[in-house]
Amino acid sequence: MKISDLEVTYMGKKCTISDYIKYQKNIKNCKELEKIGAIVYIDKIVKNIDIPKDYMCFDYILEWLQFNFDKCNFLVIKIILDKKIKEVPDNIITLFESKDEDERYDIFVDFLRYCKVS
After folding, report:
1. Burial (Cβ within 10 Å: 0-12, 13-18, ≥19) of residue 51
2. Which residue segment(s) compose the domain that 94 sits in?
3. Exposed e or buried b per residue across 83-116, where buried means at least 16 C-beta atoms within 10 angstroms of its C-beta
4. Digits of tens for pLDDT over the chain (118 positions)?
5. Phi/psi-derived region of residue 8, left when phi > 0, alpha when psi is between -120 and 50, beta in every other case
6. At a CB cut-off of 8 Å and minimum separation 6, what does 27 contact?
7. Does the residue 16 lie in any domain?
8. What domain count does the chain have?
9. Range 31-38, long-range pairs (CB < 8 A, 24+ positions)
């Protein structure tokens, strides 16, 4: 699935992951108010994920996730941004929508493998 097809909704506002990547550095270029709201909300949380690029490895990410599982979706977005991922596995939608933490964790681990995070 392309990131341009992955639509996320936060605070009742919708945008795609590719919209976030496109506009997060210069929000003034986005003309759609609904997308601006979602991008600002996502950006605030993604920028507060305190994993330095040097520590962006499998074990460190999973350890961080143990204490911050509520930010799992935002961590996925950060990894997509940092690794410049263009396509994600189709089951990533389940990660964003599921309420089952065990299922979400398994999908997240698969996502890390898919992105070749070592």
Report:
1. middle
2. 7-114
3. eebeebeeebbebbeeeeeeebbebbeebbeebe
4. 888 888 888 878 889 999 999 999 999 999 998 899 899 999 999 999 988 888 888 999 999 999 999 999 999 999 999 889 999 998 998 998 899 999 999 999 999 999 988 8
5. beta
6. 36, 39, 40, 43
7. yes
8. 1
9. 37/11, 37/13, 38/8, 38/9, 38/10, 38/11, 38/13, 38/14
Residue 2 lies in a domain: no
- Pull the structure tokens for residue 60: 């460190």
Instruction: Specify burial of residue 28 (Cβ count, 10 A radius: 0-12, 13-18, 19+).
Output: exposed
Flag whether 45 is in a domain.
yes
Q: How is residue 45 written in tokens? A: 């949380």
**Residue type at position 58:** F
CA torsion angle 99 24 65 73 (round to 10): 10
Q: Is the pTM of this model over 0.85?
A: yes
